[in-house]
Design brief:
The complex is a heterodimer of chains A (75) and B (352). Chain A is mainly α and 75 residues long. Chain A has a single domain, classed as Non-ribosomal Peptide Synthetase Peptidyl Carrier Protein, Chain A (Orthogonal Bundle). Helix content of chain A is 59%, strand content 0%. In chain A, α1 packs antiparallel against α2. Chain A is globular and about 30 Å long. The mean pLDDT of chain A is 91. Chain B is an alpha/beta fold. Chain B is built from eight helices and 18 strands. In chain B, the strands form five sheets. In chain B, strands 2, 5, 6, 7, 8, 17 and 18 form a seven-stranded mixed sheet that branches. Chain B has a five-stranded mixed sheet with strand order 1-9-16-15-14, with helices on both faces. In chain B, β11 and β12 form a beta hairpin. The chains are: A mainly alpha (75), B alpha/beta (352). The interface between A and B is medium-sized, with 15 and 18 residues.
């Protein structure tokens, strides 16, 4: 699931060809904005049937925190 | 539960009007860099929009559409018993714009006229009201007008909303028609989410003041607006749409005893291309049955469904057809309908 999540995350942020680590901060990605949130919402819905609210996105700092939220919610 | 069926009622004629002024989004770089603008346009799919002139209102667009409708069809103004005006950009706070339009259009004083204040769900809601009146034995024709100048609602320095919205108006006549079968409507609301799309000030809760018209930076991205401009929480609106709309469309089809494949056209509110494409994919819609005007008119709120019908389905609604309509947004408010139509007379879009 961790690999699939990373693929989905990179697709949403249009970073398919780049190295992304789980402890990277979301705020450090140039493409992390309101539009990439929409992409992420669509892809998380499609692949994990998980919904993340805007306020939750605001509270998440790292890629791993987002992964943990998705993992817990998908379970 | 507001699920409603009608028999032998339908839309007989439609017309639409848009402002002459055409905004090419990729050249709309006064407040943001060309790269930023191109990114927004690539994702939202809004290449062009129409902007009403400073002194042009939603009712002016509806008036032009209605006059074109009367010109194109053998409908007499004296036959209109009910006039409905759907809009959230009225001419005045009072009186109701529909009443002004009754006089301006030269309709009889015996015409009932009132406004319906809804956004993106407004056309489907308005249509259900029109059907309900048309269903009454003593009522002949209902004139449904739906207009918006959403370009005036959002601030051009707020990139979350400044590149999406446009202006348009339509007119439609609804009346009895023995050739038409069952129409089904589902109407819904969730006021707990009223903060997702909103204009905070300028009403009676937070009256207009010196500070309510001051421009201010509203987020960490540097977006600027006043409290009297609209704002939108795009992420949570999208979450709401994904949660509610596919379910609502499926339930409405079930009640109408109609399969998705039986529908000739599926006309959804034109929110933005990204959202509409994902919704279509999730519902596994046949793309050839899903007309779109998001590229040329942007999001015109309640007008987006009917202006898409007028613009894209003229000449395609001959004979018997089944339309699936779904509008969703500000409120939150959402409505879907499965309606049969037969030989709808659709006028060419007027530019004013």
């Amino acid at each position: 699931m961790k690999d699939k999540f990373m693929d989905v995350f990179k697709e949403a942020l249009e970073m398919e060809d780049e190295k992304v680590n789980f402890d990277d901060a979301l705020a450090d990605f140039d493409t992390w904005d309101s539009m990439s949130r929409l992409s992420l919402i669509a892809l998380l819905d499609e692949h994990f049937e998980v919904e993340i609210s805007d306020a939750e996105f605001d509270d998440i700092e790292t890629v791993n925190e987002l992964f943990e939220l998705v993992k817990n919610r998908a379970a | 539960m507001a699920e409603i069926d009608f028999q032998h009622i339908g839309i007989s004629a439609m017309a639409g009007a848009v402002p002459k002024s055409r905004i090419k989004n990729r050249e709309y770089t006064k407040h943001f860099s060309r790269d930023a603008v191109n990114d927004i346009v690539d994702k939202t799919g809004v290449e062009e929009r129409r902007f009403a002139a400073e002194n042009q209102t939603a009712s002016d667009l509806c008036y032009a559409a209605a006059e074109q409708l009367f010109l194109d069809n053998s409908i007499q103004k004296s036959e209109i018993d009910i006039l409905l005006f759907v809009s959230q950009t009225p001419d005045y706070k009072m009186p109701a714009t529909s009443v002004i339009l009754q006089h301006r259009l030269g309709l009889p004083k015996s015409t009932a006229a009132f406004d319906i204040n809804l956004g993106c769900s407004g056309f489907v809601y308005g249509l259900s009201v029109a059907y309900a009146y048309a269903n009454m034995p003593s009522i002949g024709k209902v004139l449904l007008l739906d207009g918006e100048t959403r370009s005036k609602v959002y601030h051009p320095k707020d990139r979350k909303t400044g590149f999406i919205f446009g202006d348009a108006g339509i007119a439609a006549v609804i009346e009895k028609n023995e050739n038409l079968g069952k129409s089904t409507f589902s109407l819904n609301s969730d006021g707990s989410k009223s903060d997702l799309i909103k204009i905070d000030a300028g009403g009676y809760r937070n009256p207009s003041s010196k500070s309510s018209v001051e421009e201010k930076v509203v987020d960490e991205h540097g977006n600027i607006r006043t409290d009297e401009h609209g704002y939108m929480n795009g992420a949570d609106v999208f979450n709401f749409v994904l949660r509610e709309i596919p379910k609502n469309i499926k339930n409405t089809l079930k009640r109408a005893n109609t399969r998705l494949t039986d529908c000739d056209f599926i006309v959804c509110h034109q929110a933005n291309k990204f959202m509409n494409d994902y919704l279509a994919r999730k519902l596994k819609l046949d793309k050839t049955k899903v007309p779109s005007t998001i590229e040329k008119y942007g999001n015109t709120s309640s007008v987006s469904i009917p202006i898409t019908i007028v613009d894209q389905l003229k000449d395609k609604l001959e004979g018997h057809k089944i339309l699936l309509l779904s509008g969703f947004g500000v409120g939150m408010s959402w409505a879907s309908a499965v309606i049969p139509v037969c030989d709808v007379s659709i006028a060419d879009i007027v530019e004013v």
